[in-house]
Specification:
The chain is mainly α and 184 residues long. The chain has one domain. Helix content is 75%, strand content 0%. The longest helix has 37 residues. The N terminus and C terminus are likely disordered.
Length: 184
């Protein structure tokens, strides 16, 4: 990949933008699919099947499980790529950005856990499946926080870097000539 000379992905040649663009689309598309699917499950499927046929709910979970597991894999691969290849170079030294993304990653791991136990079949995750209405609601709330963090981190952009003393002009390093005349 060519060296980045600016602070924006748009400073790259077209060929160097393709992989970051595909990765971003995969990440956002997966979020749309999984969060939207979870919202549908929480708002439509669970209320419609409460107290009804648990076999149908088990079949739905079995089908949804494939999407959840593949989605988690896509999130992990695209998310780490986006952070390592795009985020770190653009936000070098930007502590707030890295704190936000770190928080987002930790929250995402919690969502991955909840998603996995809600579609899981192990007896140890049964207590989560028994209260799926509550846990899908928690998952949607945490996902909304993740989207909010992501949106803020993206919209705030890359902060302007303050110039180092070594980068300033020689007259500024020696002191301002107006200040030296006033002092005399």
């Amino acid at each position: 990949m060519a060296a980045r000379c600016g602070n924006s992905l748009w400073d790259l040649p077209l060929m160097d933008m393709i992989l970051p663009l595909i990765s971003r689309w995969a990440h956002v598309g997966t979020a749309i699919l999984l969060v939207g699917g979870t919202a549908f499950f929480r708002l439509a499927v669970i209320p419609a099947l409460e107290g009804e046929n648990s076999d149908l709910l088990a079949k739905i979970r079995g089908n949804w499980k494939k999407f959840v597991h593949i989605g988690i894999l896509v999130f992990l691969v695209s998310g780490f790529y986006n952070y390592i290849a795009v985020g770190i170079p653009q936000h070098k030294g930007d502590g707030l950005y890295h704190a936000l993304i770190g928080t987002k990653m930790l929250l995402a791991m919690y969502v991955f856990f909840l998603a996995s136990v809600l579609v899981g079949s192990k007896p140890s995750s049964q207590k989560f499946r028994n209260d799926a209405k509550k846990w899908t609601g928690v998952m949607l709330l945490v996902a909304a926080v993740i989207v909010g963090i992501s949106g803020f981190a993206k919209v705030r952009g890359v902060p302007a870097k303050s110039p180092d003393v070594s980068e300033s002009q020689p007259s500024e390093q020696a002191g301002n000539s107006d200040d030296s005349e006033t002092a005399a």
